[in-house]
Design brief:
alpha/beta; FAD/NAD(P)-binding domain; Enolase-like, domain 1; 3 domains; five-stranded antiparallel β-sheet; globular; binds flavin-adenine dinucleotide; binds nicotinamide-adenine-dinucleotide; NAD
């Protein structure tokens, strides 16, 4: 016998929780299924605790910049305070009672367990089958992608979850993968005195972003004592009970007390039973249309859609799915102005297309790049003023199609650039705007002028 409901939401990360809570508040009967913690990766092992770690690392770095500008300061890093804050303030020691109460308070029925699709509009959780009149929303997120490097699986390597939960820092850490997770965590650990080596297979860090961003990230990490190895892959990993050794393709090896694997995320579809609704379980992601529909009575939001593993993407898609399920009109999903911020210091923000991506699409492109230190505010800022603004203009249409903003407030400066790309504001109009003095974002005005 199946239990009837209006909607089943499988996975309660940022996207799923938002869909389930909002639909329940709108009066629908909603079954919300979660295998681990209500809230998902972001609040317990992702964005929130990692940004708490970063806030702590940034404070140390700022204090170290005092000499020569404001006097003397000495800091004694204490990871124990960071670990305590992650437990006490961010994760409730990885207890989701508050989030679960918030969700059920909105009227959703929380069902704990692993959900599987067992037919059209049908989900089974530990022997209970739910039949959804309107349909099912898949929001099951992603998990770390562990590369098939010989030896790795037999070692006690870390993923982001272990790094976030660390009560003490290792004396040394090798980070496999120089993407967003690898670079953010490498900087924090280095600032707390851990000897860090980042090993990245591509020729630069943050390889999906502008080359200048990856190079700057490497320079900053190295200036803070980390070692950055690019264009080199791990061929074998071993652990002798105390130390990890990563054997590199170059013939060298890197030893460390701990190894963090941060080589991307993968979407797991086979366990979710997607073949029951005709989806290839081996696919890299679930295909969605502009209204987040996968098929009749089936929607997907978040990392599972492969449109960018970001909480803001998941929440944006959730809004669209909610509208569609409730029958409200609204624009289709539009990823032209997708913003990304890597929360290193300096922050590395980007929106829309990189120069290379724009050229690959056959656009007539003009770019400019202006260093932050050339603006008055950057010069005043002095220590910690690394950064730049890079613009990518589509010459035929006279609009920006992409921009990068790196700097002390790079993620915040990005907002204006995001508006420009999203609303397709003509470059000529942007040039004739007033930019407050002396802000970091005045670098945007200089970069617009440099477009010629
Ligand atoms: C270290 C780190 C730092 C990050 N920092 C940022 C950041 O600063 N900004 C940003 O935008 N993004 C960041 N992200 C990415 C962000 O965390 C994810 O994009 C976001 O959490 C994805 O949300 P989601 O809705 O897809 O679901 P997820 O958060 O992935 O949650 C999915 C949920 O579904 C559950 N689930 C899976 N399968 C089933 C099943 N079959 N049945 C029941 N439940 C199931 C899981 O237990 C999980 O709780 C970070 C990620 C990491 C790892
Ligand atoms: N600030 C943020 O918004 C933020 C922070 C952390 C994570 N995230 C999200 O989480 C996702 C996952 O982060 P991530 O850093 O794990 O993935 P990523 O895809 O950003 O980077 C993974 C890196 O690992 C490298 N790599 C892969 N296999 C390798 C190998 N065998 N040896 C050496 N290098 C290898 C890749 O070339 C790539 O540069 C990100 O794409 C991002 O969407 C966002």
């Amino acid at each position: 016998m199946s239990e009837q409901t209006d909607v089943v939401v499988v996975g309660l990360g940022p996207g799923g929780e938002h869909v389930a809570g909002t639909l329940a508040e709108a009066g629908l009967d909603v079954v919300a299924v979660e295998a681990e913690l209500v809230g998902g990766e972001c609040p317990y092992w992702g964005c929130v605790p990692s940004k708490m770690m970063i806030r702590a690392g940034n404070l140390l770095a700022e204090a170290r910049r005092v000499p020569g500008i404001a006097g003397d300061a000495s800091v004694r890093p204490d990871w124990g305070q960071v670990a305590a804050r992650i437990r006490g303030e961010a994760t409730d020691d990885w207890n989701d009672q508050v989030a679960a109460d918030r969700l059920t308070g909105k009227g959703a029925r929380l069902v704990r367990g692993f959900g599987r699709l067992t037919g059209p509009r049908q989900v089974t959780v530990d022997g209970r089958t739910f039949q959804a009149r309107r349909g099912v929303v898949l929001a099951t997120g992603s998990r770390p992608r562990i590369p098939p490097i010989p030896g790795l699986a037999e070692t006690p390597y870390w993923t982001n979850r272990d790094a976030v939960a660390a009560k003490e820092l290792p004396a040394s850490l090798t980070v496999l993968g120089g993407g967003a997770i690898g670079v953010e965590i490498a900087q924090v650990f280095a600032r707390f005195g851990c000897r860090v080596t980042v090993v990245e297979g591509q020729e630069r860090l943050l390889s999906a972003e502008e080359p200048e961003s990856g190079r700057l990230a490497a320079d900053v990490l190295q200036a803070e004592g980390a070692t950055v190895r690019t264009s080199v892959r791990a061929e074998r990993v071993s652990h002798d009970g105390a130390m990890f050794t990563v054997h590199l393709g170059s013939g060298e090896s890197v030893g460390a007390e701990q190894l963090l694997v941060a080589t991307g995320r993968r979407v797991e579809l086979a366990g979710l039973g997607v073949d029951a609704v005709g989806i290839d379980p081996a696919a890299a992601a679930v295909d969605t249309d502009g209204r987040m529909r996968v098929g009749d009575g089936l929607w997907a939001v978040g990392d599972i859609t492969g449109r960018g593993a970001f909480t803001h993407v998941s929440m944006y898609q959730a809004q669209i799915a909610i509208r569609d399920i409730l029958g409200f009109p609204g624009p289709d999903a539009d990823y032209r102005a997708l913003p990304r911020v890597v929360f290193t210091d300096p922050e590395i923000g980007a929106v829309g297309l990189t120069e290379q991506a724009a050229r690959d699409r056959g656009l007539q492109v003009r770019t400019s790049l202006v260093p932050l230190s050339s603006a008055t505010r950057g010069w005043i800022h002095k220590a910690g003023n690394e950064g730049f603004v890079k613009l990518v203009q589509d010459l035929d249409r006279g609009v920006l199609v992409g921009a990068t903003s790196v700097g002390a407030a790079g993620g915040e400066v990005l907002y204006g650039l995001g508006v420009a790309v999203h609303a397709e504001v003509p470059v000529e109009r942007l040039r004739n705007m007033i930019y407050a003095y002396p802000t970091f974002h005045r670098t945007v005005e200089a970069a617009l002028a440099a477009l010629g």
